[in-house]
Amino acid sequence: MESRRVEALADGVFAVAMTLLVLGVHLPELPAPVTGAALLAALRALALSLAGYAVGFLLLGTLWLGHHNQFRFIRRADRTLLWLNLFFLLAVALVPFTTALIARYPLQPVAMAIFGGTLLLAGVFLFAHWSYAVNAGLVDDAVTPEAAELIRERMSMAMVACLVATIIGAFLPKAGLVLFGCMPVLSMLPGRVDPALAEDVSTSD
Amino acid sequence: MESRRVEALADGVFAVAMTLLVLGVHLPELPAPVTGAALLAALRALALSLAGYAVGFLLLGTLWLGHHNQFRFIRRADRTLLWLNLFFLLAVALVPFTTALIARYPLQPVAMAIFGGTLLLAGVFLFAHWSYAVNAGLVDDAVTPEAAELIRERMSMAMVACLVATIIGAFLPKAGLVLFGCMPVLSMLPGRVDPALAEDVSTSD
Amino acid sequence: MESRRVEALADGVFAVAMTLLVLGVHLPELPAPVTGAALLAALRALALSLAGYAVGFLLLGTLWLGHHNQFRFIRRADRTLLWLNLFFLLAVALVPFTTALIARYPLQPVAMAIFGGTLLLAGVFLFAHWSYAVNAGLVDDAVTPEAAELIRERMSMAMVACLVATIIGAFLPKAGLVLFGCMPVLSMLPGRVDPALAEDVSTSD
Amino acid sequence: MESRRVEALADGVFAVAMTLLVLGVHLPELPAPVTGAALLAALRALALSLAGYAVGFLLLGTLWLGHHNQFRFIRRADRTLLWLNLFFLLAVALVPFTTALIARYPLQPVAMAIFGGTLLLAGVFLFAHWSYAVNAGLVDDAVTPEAAELIRERMSMAMVACLVATIIGAFLPKAGLVLFGCMPVLSMLPGRVDPALAEDVSTSD
């Protein structure tokens, strides 16, 4: 399978980025003697870092899922597709940095803009990746134009949601944080695209 | 194989988490001139970090083994299963942090509660992952209801053991540490589930 | 497939090296109270680190692409090939360090020489890897001597470009930085080698 | 293929450990204004760290090669084999720490003993892994008892060499360093085991 290694590199970048997120949660360093109350207070101060970890992880999971679903249909890769994939991964690998930024400066509009802008960039490259694969005939013949369009629509909606959350977040950081936290939840809901995805599997069995 | 990339992402997260554990063992920085006795003393002070590394590694190994065994039977994945898998990995990727926490504050009940709670969370998601896969018909037809139940029982016992170790550890941290150190050993013992696992391999040959 | 694990190790090293690059972009630590203007200024000071991240990532992507293309044709591996691969990865895994060096000391000729020298070393091992595979008969029979030569030519040109950029960069660091930034762009252009690559895929379908 | 994921986890741990080695090479932090001479001097002081990086990388490469060669013959895995594999990886993932230790304290016998001892531990688990796989009938039927014994002999010799280097290094650290640097070179030489390895590939084609 031609696309095997593209997926292996992507899975590796996602796995490292997801696990590096935890480096943004700093171990509290308390002077001895350590009391339970002091440690509890120090851990409470980590709540924002931990929330950032969870949101960053689930947003990466959402992007991974989108990449995963595309490669269920992509059969071949050419130079252009490989580079679109690399630019997508370039944005993905930045997420541990932007997540640490937002967890450190949660109420700063510029931090929110960089966080949302990086996710949007990843979304744009993922969209371009799918559009190119469809147009260049690199996808499975079983993918109907309707199914290709459904996937494109779903991705467009996700990008619009990301853009809205970024703009709102640039003015109202707290509202932006809540909106970004909701995006993975939306991705967990079943979509009109699911039957098309399921169908493909059953026919290839 | 539909589940190939889910496993690749999981293997990547486990591999990174296992290897990041070693970042919790800090290189001693001694002022020159360094004597052998001073270095030996500094390395002895690392004993707890190294024990934490070993216990964290083997507990991650235990979780990986459980995930690995499930995917010997899981043939398909849907949106829900992929998200259960991502939540499981979210807990797994936290283990380097919780292990560093427990190695730094070994006698603090709150550190032990967070360490055990994260493992329990991973166990709950792994259990939900298997239960969902069986109920949604995503597993191999060769898996009998009895075999599915045996795996569920084994996981339930592991979760109860983890809960007990967490509760005991919250009151008696030292006893909790010993109990968590014993859990991978239990996982090394052959179980009633092994013949079912072996059978599947022989029939698929 | 004999070469599967060689590729898996390489994909892993590339994925980790690409994602570790982001550790070279340090989160600004501002004293409270943080103003938007102060954070914006601190983030502007990161521009060079971020440019280094992007260039390092895309250069690693270029090397990955070269490795990927070789393994579309390599069918077997022997001890010598595996060690050439390991030496190639040794240079690849150094890139996060040399990228951080160049981002920290962008105008120092010695930093540029080390950055370019490491990339050149990776290129030399990648070239040796391909030449050895062809000469030792480890590649697919469908690879004609002309196609093998085309790939060698393309790699030679890339190595010459890298050498030129390193030498120019040792005297004019800014010009060297621009030249290295252009190299991935060159790799995105279609090449005379593409039909040969495409042909192979169509015949193996 | 039953052993696929065991290899995927191992490749991931090796890839991360190899790439984490570079974190032991610290970027020099010079006060402004930075002169070329000052940077050159600072980089020269890194020579030992870089040598440690190279030796650690190549020793990990040697261990990876041994693991890789075993899995060319291992067809099945059971609980015991999986745990032997995990214990092997536990030692492998420690190598970035022990390499940083030896690069920081190159002339301390205790550092050398820990460095060599960890490698020896990895060797012992790798040896146990192969012996168990052969005895439990988990290897390919094409593996003759003679070939299995040849591999065991080669591994025994490597372990003896590692033990000798560790003991010598505990008394004469410099000689130990040179001996460990020579071990990957030995692994690059063709061995009596190579025809057996090659034969297997040709018969399985």
What does this structure look like?
4 copies of one chain form a homotetramer. Chain A is an all-alpha fold and 205 residues long. Chain A has one domain. Helix content of chain A is 76%, strand content 0%. Chain A is built from 9 helices and no strands. In chain A, helix 1 runs antiparallel to helix 3, helix 3 packs across helix 8 and helix 7 packs antiparallel against helix 8. The longest helix of chain A is centred in the middle third of the chain and has 27 residues. The two termini of chain A are 16 Å apart. In chain A, 47% of the residues are buried. The C terminus of chain A is likely disordered.
Number of domains of chain A: 1
Strand content of chain A: under 5%
Q: What class, by secondary structure content of chain A?
A: mainly alpha
Mean pLDDT of chain A: 90
Oligomeric description of these chains: homotetramer
Radius of gyration of chain A: 19 Å
Notable features of this structure?
homotetramer; 205 residues; mainly alpha; elongated; disordered C terminus
Task: Give a quick summary of the entry.
The structure is a homotetramer of 205-residue chains. Chain A has 205 residues and is mainly alpha-helical.
